[in-house]
Input
Amino acid sequence: MQRLAGMGRVLIGATLFAAAAAIAVPVAETDFWQPKDSKDQEAYVNEPMPPGVKVVPTELDGPLFATAEGKTLYTWPLRGLRNGNAGDRHKSGVATCDDKIYRETSGLMSPYPGGFLLPDADTRKSCEQRWPPFLAPKDAQEVGKWTVVKRTNGQSQWAYDGYPVYTSDLDRKPGDVLGGSRRGTGGESGAQRVPVGPPPDVPPELAVVDSRTGRMLTDHKGYSVYFSDADEPGKSNCYGDCLETWNPVLAPLTAKPQGEWTILERSPGIRQWVYRGRPLYTYIPEERGRILGSDVPGWHNVYTQRSLLPPAEFTVQDSRIGQVLADSRGHTLYVYNCNDDAIDQQSCNHPSEPQEYRLAICGNFDPKVCRETFPYVPASAGARADSELWTVVTIDQDTGRFAEPGQPNAVQVWAYRDRPVYTYHGDLKPGDANGDSFGEFNGARNGFKAFWIRDDFRNNVFGR
Amino acid sequence: MVRECKGRVATMAGVAAAGALLGAAAGAATLQEGGSPLRNGTIAYVLTDRYWSVYETEKGATECPKGFNDGPREQFQQLYSDGKKRSIVEAQLKREGKQWHPTDDPEAFPFLEAQGSVSYGLNLDGKVDANDFESPEGEPGIDNQLFRAIGCIAGFRKGGSHYHFDNLFMRSYNDTRIVLELTGVDDLVNDADVTVRTWRGSDNLLTDASGEAFIPGGTQRVDLRWGQDYVNELKGRIVDGYLITDPIDHITFPWGFTFDTTGVQVFRGMQFKLKLSPTNADGLLAGFVDVHGFIHRLNTHLSTHHQSYGQISSPSLYRAMSRLADGYPDPKSGRNTAISSSVEVKFVQVFLQKPAKRRQLTMRK
Output
């Protein structure tokens, strides 16, 4: 057939719709992050802990448990995969991460059968080498939520809240949380490790959810919580018409002030929670899991803590479901996710891990195609961000592994949580996110996801 | 011979002046009949169903006499079930590499194209050619080469995985809410000149108590904040109850499905033909889809796992679509880059709620 030459009376309202000018908003002019000098840090419930365990503050995941040396602690909760489960079963008393070296795929990841050799079959470490168990002394006594499980080799291992506890070989210095994130990647990302910490010190009527940029307060049903600029410390000015749109987060009569939490009495017997001096509300028109109330002038979401500013050259762009973090040109940034299909579900998204997965997706094993399809984001030597989550790393752009500066093919690129970030060649204008979900299982298992920092429709910001 | 369309008159997402446009609608011809949703010459509909058109006969007897295509699972088994020990790089990742970087290189698998001369679709070029179909009603010149490519893939047929998931998730997530607004309508049966605007809505679909059937009279808030790419204007006419729009050279629809995906589908030379009533608008959305773009959307929304449900091998489908492509030739190679297609669509009437003016600032300082 032939395609039309003259398309007839196609009418496009070029005069009616002026082209929307993309506005590249520097990250420093947005309020997604907390300033470097901010003291905001999430308070937590002091729980009894075994000797040698401490709580350390972390930038993205809040307070976490760590060893005496500062190594972050993780659990590996059992997770249903397409063809079975992987991870530690709750309160089973068994740690499944042992010294066995798995050299073949398990077939847990549909549609591919198991029994194929893994890329690192000859050099692969065991699960316990990647995730050293946090051992307990032989005479360890259970304390609070901390219990002891016996490993197959007879060693004792600490467990928290029913799950054995491990450290990660990716964490190099105290405060590193490179083995996983509380936020996770959601969907079909595999059975991932999750850093563990004490419960946040919030009243039962409230909760903390993990997001891409910090720890956000919601009510216990998952509705976002807000504060108003019009209020005064410990005093609400939201009455009358204001209450048509905003619901005070009510405190029960039995509630008592504690730490950063106080209570104001709106009228006799009607009490409202106040956090850090700010009365709290939910936004009545809003669905669960949204932050639309923050668009109302003078109203803001509430975070126990937020990450610090990413590289100052980055921008924030409006996109089709919200906003994305972008480079200085406005090109959307992408993170690469990867978890392998062995029984012990090792990650493969870090430059120290097998690169065959990424190379298959971004370039059909051709590094040059990879660099063209998902280019690294160049960084100048010595560049720093306020946020410790963002660093400059040296990468061999052919192998994708860490390299030494000056080494042939070495480039210095921006990395998020020690993993390079990318742009996508198919993004033609600022705010495009056409590389989103590129890869196995919509980019969650072996592929790329856009760096969403606001999502008004889906769940890309809040993860699991 | 394939000719190139001159001058892309395409979409605009501009929204700065949308407020003025919205205001202008109020000045259109006045028509209101009792409780009719046609008010001030305006009526709107929201999409509830979308199915890539496949003309099916019983068990595919006519269009798929040799049966149906294999999918990723079957192809994988054919390639790697010889007992030889292989690495994941030689098998799974090799298949995934081909999935994300498809080529026209020959493959070992046969591909079954849909046979027959009948297809749903529209005459997109105004001509009757040898490769064209005839519509079930007997109209010649139907352009829908995509049917040849997908007609014998189970996932695209009634109840198949793509057929199912495309709609399940479209209904579940409001970022895929496609809204049509007709203005300048004097008569829903015959009107020589109407204007059709596309928007993205923001709200759940209104259903009856069963939750299964969509009912008219709901409200959709127009999304002028994130939905700028989906704002378009088309001209059309209503003939004997059918809305027929003029082709629009480039139009983007939100087309995300499955979890946390955000994709779009771009059509070239797109037209609507919809049977209108005060409560519904059902018919066809037809146009050319870019071969790469279609496969990209397919892969980013349906994992290989989900494609396996419906025997959809995207590398094989890519080859077929490239072979059957019939529009928008590459200026250098002369090779067609897009394929004619048709989507069966159903809309239900809604009332639109538009923002008084678009938010100019999206960032809070």
In short: Chain A has three domains: 48-197, 201-306, 315-455. Chain A has a mean pLDDT of 93. The radius of gyration of chain A is 24 Å.
